[in-house]
């Protein structure tokens, strides 16, 4: 059983080869800016401030690596779609992410985070096309679901079913009230078990 609380921050890199990183499976969390990645990561590892949270969109600009129980790396990717990024930073961001996905044999799962109150953005759709083209393993995590009433939740779930036709696994979560954090734990554990099967 993975002890998610036994998590250490390894470092922030533009390229995983910059750090002395062991050959462990990697699970990356990615999504548009301000989707709640850092808050969700803190909830998953049951630590308040290990992943720094900011109300300023686009705060995370590098790949933040966390070693979880010496079992896998959880990677917090920069948020995409932040309009105020300077052009040279946007170019370096694209290069960094392309290198990460195309040259990473340890990538085991991509968790795409989507604000459950929003529809898919053009950036979300472009990233989904990229993932589909390269046949990367993908799971959707809908964040901030505590802000939805039952009607809104049903609407969001219906939108998901119509959009993805049930072909992609989805988990509705809230870092505020810890809704379905245990399901994320289970999904990560199952993903890693399947690697060994």
Could you please describe the fold and organization of this structure?
The chain has 197 residues and is an alpha/beta fold. It has a single domain (7-196), classed as Rossmann fold. The protein has five helices and seven strands. The protein has helices at 37-44, 87-102, 122-134, 150-164, 181-196; strands at residues 7-13, 26-31, 63-68, 72-76, 107-115, 138-143, 169-172. A seven-stranded mixed β-sheet has the order 1-3-4-2-5-6-7, covered by helices on one side. Helix 3 (122-134) links the parallel strand 5 and strand 6. The longest helix is centred in the middle third of the chain and has 16 residues, at 87-102. Residues 54-58 and 82-89 have low confidence and may be disordered.
List the helices and strands and how they pair.
Elements: E1 7-13, E2 26-31, H1 37-44, E3 63-68, E4 72-76, H2 87-102, E5 107-115, H3 122-134, E6 138-143, H4 150-164, E7 169-172, H5 181-196
Parallel strand pairs: 2-4, 2-5, 5-6, 6-7
Antiparallel strand pairs: 1-3, 3-4
Per the CATH scheme, the topology name is Rossmann fold
Q: For this structure, what is the CATH homologous superfamily?
A: P-loop containing nucleotide triphosphate hydrolases
Radius of gyration: 16 Å
Shape: globular
Sheet with most strands: 7 strands, mixed
Distance between the termini: 16 Å
* Overall tally of structural domains: 1
Based on secondary structure, the structural category is alpha/beta
Give the uncertain stretches in residue-range form.
54-58, 82-89
Total helices: the number is: 5
| Secondary-structure element series | EEHEEHEHEHEH
